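Question: Now follow the chain.
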Amino acid sequence: MAHNARMPLEGHWARQHSALPSTSLREGRVLLAVAIAALLAALVVVVLALQRQAPAPAAGCVEVVAASTTGGATYRACGSEAAAWCRDSARKTDAVAREVVRQCRRAGYPLAGGGA
């Protein structure tokens, strides 16, 4: 039984385990464009986030950002409420009180004893 016909499964393993077909050039360019667009969008978001600054508190107001149960909070007081907050914070030593005192000095509020 000598014949030159190929066996049906000859080369089957090689055909089934060859490298995945490469994407076409057009598909590759589309994927590259999408990746670049996503990278640029992320870069814009980061730049805008870094440039955004909170506005200065209004005249006569004291603002302090401090840790809270939800991550962070902005505490604000104006007028006589700010003056009382400044006097009360001057008697404390915790981190929030120290920041309040710093902001009170910046705003010109007197601290305990009527001094600045």
About this structure: The CA atoms of residues 61 and 81 lie 9 Å apart. Helices lie at 12-16, 25-51, 79-90, 95-107. The two ends are 112 Å apart (CA to CA).
